[in-house]
Hints:
With 172 residues, this protein is an alpha/beta fold. It contains six helices and six strands, in the order αβαβαβαβαββα. Strands 3-2-1-4-5-6 form a six-stranded parallel β-sheet, with helices on both faces. Strand 4, helix 5 and strand 5 form a beta-alpha-beta unit. Helix 1 crosses helix 4 (94-100) and helix 2 packs across helix 6.
Amino acid sequence: MDLPTPILQKVAKKKLALDPGLEYLLFFGLIRFYKGLDLLIKSLPELRQKKPNTRLLVVGESYELMRKYRKLAISLMVNDMVFFHDHFVPKMQIPLWFGACDWVIQPYKSATQSGITPMAIYYAKPSVVTDVGSLSDGITAKTGLVCKPNPTALYQTINRALTEKEQFSDIK
């Protein structure tokens, strides 16, 4: 994998003008229906109750209308928790997004595999992935957590991930 060098979280947050006191979840890559962004957004109202300082970064080129995701976030009153950067990310900017986040979230509804998991591991970021296809094959007790592809399971697993984050701090 030929990726740019990782950068420190505080540096990445500063360069992206993100609040250094918040925790960030990263949904990264091509935005397509089967990748479950709607499930992730639907998990946010419950997450806000337990982890109010959590934000979601939706980063990547969209292959569908983003309006439905923005409307969903508004209807669930979590639009203030979601930052959309829905266009292509040049290779040299990838370390910024991975550097800024605390967890990479892959809430896929269906999948064979994903290139995002190896990227998360390279950037020493743990992942929450759904147990579809072979998506969870790269996930170990040190690299992340696996859950069912539904909003409740995502909320519960992300809450656990943020609560137990220290056990994932040395994934390289």
